[in-house]
Specification:
This protein is of the alpha+beta class. It contains 30 helices and 29 strands. The strands form nine sheets. Strands 4-7-2-1-10-13-12 form a seven-stranded mixed sheet, with no helix packed on it. The chain has a five-stranded mixed sheet with strand order 15-16-17-19-18, covered by helices on one side. A four-stranded mixed sheet has the order 27-23-22-29. It starts with a helix and ends with a helix. The C terminus is likely disordered. Its main location: membrane.
Length: 935
């Protein structure tokens, strides 16, 4: 049986099982589809504040195999919740529960165990709120105990207390783990499942003796529960939110030292040393930076970090028991790339930072989740930099965080950092790049304004003030205002207003006029009057780029006076891109900047401002602010660029542009790519990293080789294919991890079924999650219809875990050759895709990803006809989503047609017009920009 036949059989069996099983309901959080209108009033999704919990006693008894009349993947549970009220006439108690059957419940007065008479409970399936009516009112300031006995489900959707597995010597080993953020603790035990309801917890787990169990706190006792079972009791937690509880039931092993331990399946223990080493260093660094030692928090006597085979999030900050996808914590230098190592270090830093920003001090509700996630994303870079000191995190932050979030934040569909949420789907959706990236960017901006030492002092005070409590933005602003009375007025507008400004600089003899206007990439002529306090720095020579402490200016327009303004070499705003805004210049200033960029040493322009200029030009052209011809002429300077940050900004801009290049211009565009990357390729060379090269130079090589090979660089392709063939012939000698992405991709692109089957077998047999991701990237480069079909079959099969299916599909769809084949596959296999991925919401997402990259009207028409004839199967929500994707296709097409002539003229002149016309002189750039300013 061939590989294709095997995968087809697996897919058929999988989908058949999915159709007839009684698996748990689909979780909409996992899919990329706008939720339908809420089926309840927004306020009905929130608990009232009548009753507050103070302590939980929870006992869980999981069944990872059938035991008597106990079904596999269920668990028995009991919960006792101590509650009280400060109000009069409280006649009912509201709390959450989901996916469980409660067999008994009661309310007793704690002091004397008096039973409080109750009425039949009610349950709202939509809001997941359980209402317990009482026959008589609760007394104020008296403690009561809510008792529940119930049966829960260990589903396979990676939420709540769920089941996962790994293979050991060909045997499937089942285990249980948890993921409760944002609203899934209620699937493990009845609870007040909102962050504001902090309480202490004591957990007991009744487990098969051959399993080990772990939770937030240390084990304080064990006892024989029954034959073959142990009852393990954990210490009482600090006062904390329900979403931070965690427990694992698995035959794991531990690598521990100095109060920290890495938990993993036995075969992965050889991949835990780096995480342990860097985790210890990061915890110490953050202890000192925040000046509130982790060990001083009650019951936090140690920190465990667990590698979980199936995990919906990247990682989770459960207090004292951090959980991770395997690829985000397991590392070996001979099988993981440099970038994967950095990913592991920064994710660990992120989760450890949450022990203060999130666990000790917790956002009051998810509408201000940035108070958790913005800080954690900030520390990903600036705490890891304290430990891994040579990785140039400042350079990386600007492009990877600030510039990337600007893409989403330039659309009407964006939202402010502080933004109302009510439903489960809304609570999940708020965990996006606005909450994470923009949150971190605004914090960095305030750090530069306040100075690092003042910023640190203020945050230390904030943590001490709010310890074991919840927090709102006002609490943070109040802490900052103690050290600068303007802090709140400068910071708050960035958190409550969506978007960011485009700042336009106009020069005159005595200075510069600055104006601001919200940047909406698809609406350059809008009349919105939103204004922000602008953090202004500027440079007219190399030495001034180090000045990053801004002065804030308010108003739509203001002046920066300067004697001899017309004589400066250049005027560049926003030193090292500390401020969160784009900058456009008048024609004269763009001309000066272009001249400097094309001069020796780039005129002393700081590397981060070069990255800023690259990113701004691509996006100002995209937004019809600067002509594409002008932008591309200035960006010809990239042929001499040797630094990572500007190249990463360029790769991001070129990726977007490549999807909008007219189909008839793709050969010209390929020649353009090979030209601007030619010197960079000669610098990085097709070789493994040297021991002395900068880490970001290694990252730059990966991008340069990828783009060179993708666009047909002959030397790159030959070297990659040769290395793949060598590996194919002798798999015991592996490809260097930092070359694998390009080697695997080019080997598959230029190879046949034989090469594909070889690499697929490596995927099935590797013990490294990081290696599996590299292989999936390589397999996604398949270039024949047959291999693309096999790859898509593989994605729908159980061989690719649910958490990896989205990434695997992205790898395939970024190979533009595959688009028609993917479209046909989805039309022919939509039922299989929906069953494998969870719902038709994911079918809609897949089609929309195709449409976002498609350049064929005929293929668009085929998709349109398909959804019309299958509307009832798709369902209204998926149908409407694909209809929106079709509208977006038309918008993208009009964009291509509108800009085609100018882009074509630039490419044609450059490629066919000879060397003399390749680089525009300054006067040409000025002339083009004058035309724009005159419009």
């Amino acid at each position: 049986m061939t590989l294709a036949e095997k995968l087809a059989l697996v897919v058929l069996v999988t989908c058949a099982c999915a159709v007839v099983s009684t698996a748990s309901p689909l979780d909409p959080d996992r899919y990329f589809l706008v939720e339908a209108e809420p089926r309840a009033q927004p306020e009905d999704y929130r608990l009232n504040d009548d009753v507050w919990p103070t302590h939980y006693d929870i006992e869980i008894k999981p069944y990872l195999e059938q035991e008597g009349n106990k079904a596999q993947f269920t668990f028995d549970g009991s919960a006792k919740i101590t509650v009280s009220t400060q109000k009069q006439n409280v006649m009912q108690i509201k709390l959450h529960m989901a996916r469980m059957d409660i067999s008994a419940w009661s309310v007793t007065r704690k002091s004397d165990n008096t039973i409080i008479p109750t009425l039949p409970q009610t349950y709202d399936q939509e809001t997941q709120i359980l209402t317990l009516p009482l026959s008589s009112a609760l007394q104020a300031n008296v403690e009561y105990v809510l008792s529940f006995t119930y049966v829960g489900n260990m589903d396979d959707d990676m939420h709540g207390f769920y089941r996962s597995y790994y293979w050991e010597d060909g045997v499937k080993v089942w285990m249980g783990s948890t993921q409760f953020q944002q609203t899934h603790a209620r699937r493990a035990f009845p609870c007040f499942d909102e962050p504001r309801f902090k309480a202490t917890f004591q957990l007991k787990i009744n487990h098969k003796t051959q399993y080990n169990v772990y939770s937030n706190t240390a084990i304080v006792g064990t006892a024989v529960a029954e034959v073959g079972r142990t009852l393990t009791t954990f210490g009482v937690t600090p006062s904390m939110s329900s979403y931070l509880i965690a427990f694992i039931v698995a035959p794991y092993q531990i690598n521990d030292r100095d109060g920290m331990g890495i938990l993993a399946r036995p075969q992965a223990q050889n991949q835990t040393q780096y995480s342990l080493d860097v985790g210890i260093k990061l915890l110490k660094a953050l202890d000192e930076w925040i000046d509130y030692p982790y060990a001083s928090m009650p019951a936090m006597t140690r920190m465990y970090m667990a590698a979980v085979p199936d995990f919906s999030a990247g990682a989770m900050e459960n207090w004292g028991l951090l959980t991770y996808r395997e690829a985000n914590i397991l590392y070996r230098s001979d099988d993981s790339t440099s970038m994967q190592q950095q990913r592991i270090a920064t994710v660990i830093s992120h989760e450890i930072a949450h022990q203060w920003f999130g666990d000790l001090v917790t956002c009051e509700w998810w509408d201000v989740a940035w108070l958790n996630e913005g800080f954690a994303r900030y520390y990903e870079y600036y705490a890891t930099a304290l430990v891994e000191t040579n990785w140039d995190f400042e350079d990386q932050f600007v492009v990877a965080q600030l510039q990337s979030v600007m893409q989403m934040d330039s659309l009407r569909s964006t939202h402010p950092m502080t933004h109302p949420v009510y439903t489960q789907a809304e609570s999940s959706a708020i965990f996006d790049s606005i909450t994470y990236n923009k949150g971190a960017v605004v914090l960095r901006m305030m750090e530069h304004y306040l100075t690092t030492e003042t910023f640190k002092t203020a945050l230390r005070a904030y943590i001490k003030d709010r310890a074991f409590k919840t927090t709102r933005p006002e609490d943070l602003f109040s802490a900052l205002n103690r050290y600068d009375p303007n802090a709140r007025s400068y910071m708050e507008p960035w958190t409550v207003q969506p978007g960011y400004p485009l700042v336009t600089v106009t020069s005159h003899d005595t200075g510069f006029t600055i104006t601001q206007k919200r940047f909406l990439v698809n609406e350059p002529d809008h009349n919105e009057q939103t204004a922000w306090p602008l953090p202004i720095t500027f440079a007219t020579k190399a030495s001034e780029f180090s000045i990053t402490r801004p002065a804030f200016y308010t108003g739509m327009t203001f002046e920066i006076p300067m004697q001899g303004a017309s004589d400066v070499e250049y005027f560049i705003l926003n030193n090292q891109q500390v401020g969160y805004y784009r900058v456009n210049y008048d024609a004269i200033l763009w001309g000066k900047i272009s001249k400097a960029l094309h001069s020796e040493g780039f005129g002393g322009i700081h590397v981060l401002n070069r990255a800023q200029i690259v990113d701004d030009l691509f996006n100002l052209a995209r937004g019809d602010v600067v002509p594409y011809g002008t932008a591309l002429e200035i960006l010809e300077y990239l042929k001499e660029e040797t630094e990572y940050a500007p190249w990463l900004a360029a790769v991001n801009g070129l990726t977007t542009l490549s999807r909008r290049i007219h189909a008839d211009d793709e050969k010209l565009f390929a020649a353009h790519i090979l030209d601007i990357f030619s010197k960079a390729y000669d610098i990085v060379k097709f070789q493994a990293p040297t021991a002395t090269e900068r880490r970001i130079f290694t990252y730059m090589r990966q991008y340069v080789l990828q783009w060179a090979c993708n666009y047909g660089h002959e030397e790159c392709s030959k070297a990659a294919v040769a290395e793949f063939h060598r590996y194919h012939q002798n798999p015991s000698v592996k490809v260097h991890p930092d070359l694998r992405q390009v080697v695997y991709c080019e080997g598959i692109r230029k190879g046949s079924m034989e090469e594909f089957e070889f690499l697929w077998n490596q995927y099935l047999t590797t013990n490294m999650a990081t290696e599996q991701l590299l292989i999936l990237q390589g397999l996604g480069c398949a270039s024949s219809s047959e291999l693309i079909t096999i790859m898509l079959d593989a994605i729908t099969s159980p061989h690719v875990r649910s958490q990896d299916k989205s990434n695997a599909f992205t790898y395939v769809i970024n190979n533009l050759y595959t688009l028609p084949h993917i479209s046909r596959y989805l039309q022919q296999n939509h039922a299989n895709w929906a069953a494998s991925h969870g719902s038709y919401a994911n079918v809609a997402s897949a089609f929309n990803n195709v449409l976002a990259r498609l350049k064929s009207d005929s293929e668009r028409d085929v998709i349109s006809a398909f959804i019309e004839s299958n509307k009832n199967i798709l369902g209204q929500a998926a149908y409407d989503s694909i209809k929106t994707g079709l509208e977006d296709y038309e918008t993208n097409k009009q964009f291509t047609l509108r800009n085609r002539d100018e882009i074509h003229e630039f490419l044609d002149n450059k490629i066919n017009g000879g060397a003399a016309t390749i680089l525009a002189n300054v006067s040409m750039i000025v002339g083009l920009l004058m035309l724009v300013l005159a419009r």
